[in-house]
Amino acid sequence: MFNRFFRFALMALLIITGNILSGPVMAEPAIDVSSVRLGLHEDKTRFVMEMSAEPKYDVFLLADPYRIVIDLPELDWRADDSGGRQKGIVQNYRFGLFKKDTSRVVLDVGGPVTILRTVILPPSSGKPYRFFIDIQKTDEVSFQRELAERRSNLSERSIALVAPEPPAPSRKYTIVIDPGHGGIDPGAIGKSGVYEKKITLAVSKRIHKILSKNSKYNPILTRDDDTFLSLRERVTFGRQAKADLFISIHADSIGRANFRGAAVYTLSENASDDEAAELAKSENKSDLIAGVDLSVQDDTVQGILIDLAQRETMNFSVKFAEMVTPEIAKSGMKTRGRSHRFAGFRVLKAPDVPSVLVELGYLSNREDEKILKSNTGQQRLAQAIANAVDKYFETIDP
Ligand SMILES: [Zn+2]
Q1: Distance 86 CA to ligand 1 centre (A)
Q2: Structural domain ending residue among the three candidates 149, 177, 197
Q3: Which of 35, 46, 95, 131 could pair with 39 as two cysteines, CB 3.0-4.6 Å apart?
């Protein structure tokens, strides 16, 4: 099902971009990246990647916070990832898959910067191709000018333009399962080093599998591999699929290591408590982490007011949220106090799709992490959520 949708989306994308291919698409040999590092020079900071071939690339700037984004073809990252990530004006950087066929590097910089030059040197004296970018501090006005000049050539993937296949004649409930994070955005990192994006994908696939066995349901995953999706793309996906239910799966971390247990969240302008507010803030950072250019989006989602339709949607979201917590409690995972909480999660902003965000547990807590990493723990959590789905549809449509 998902593959079919994905092929359809990809086809549409190719047609939209005007690259109609006559034959089968041949995969280009991947380019290996063998080294990534920062260098500090007298008046500039240099970011260097060593790679096996010369890639095409696109560099642009983002404000709020200040970032430099480098888009490249899909790369095979073999670089040692343990070196220092802070030098000169660069405060941190990350790299990974942004979307199919596009790898991305995001450099977080401490203030307005200018890109002095980007160069790819051919192999010489035993060194492979070297890509480098030299960065220097500048003033705000020059930064804004350069930002406008270097607009991203990449728009978001065009799922917004492609509807998934329409529901079968005998009406099934469409449930969109949304594994949080992915690709360049690892999400939270557990005590043992496990990435949230892996846990969310593993549990989501299990939920998908359980629901697929019931002919009442048409479950769809927003992603079924390690790719990044912006929050807006996730929301759009749910709306395009005309989902009856949207479930975003997460397993975050929090500063306090003794905090543990699952919790279920719905959208609200005001947060139920400080912890929910903190969590929404960190979840909403996903787009910043991946360098999504929010300034070029015609953001129908960001500005949505809670209108009547949404209020009705909200009632259904809350109804489902209240059914999830007791099921998770039965699965053996601890749950946190009140049955559900609420805050301003951007991923829950579809006005017409009942949406919840499930935090399966905290990766910052050792016991929770153990459950989240284990097959049994994952299966139990998936089953608990599937049980809640059953209960929910029995209630609203007996
Ligand atoms: Zn998360």
Answers
A1: 24
A2: 149
A3: 46
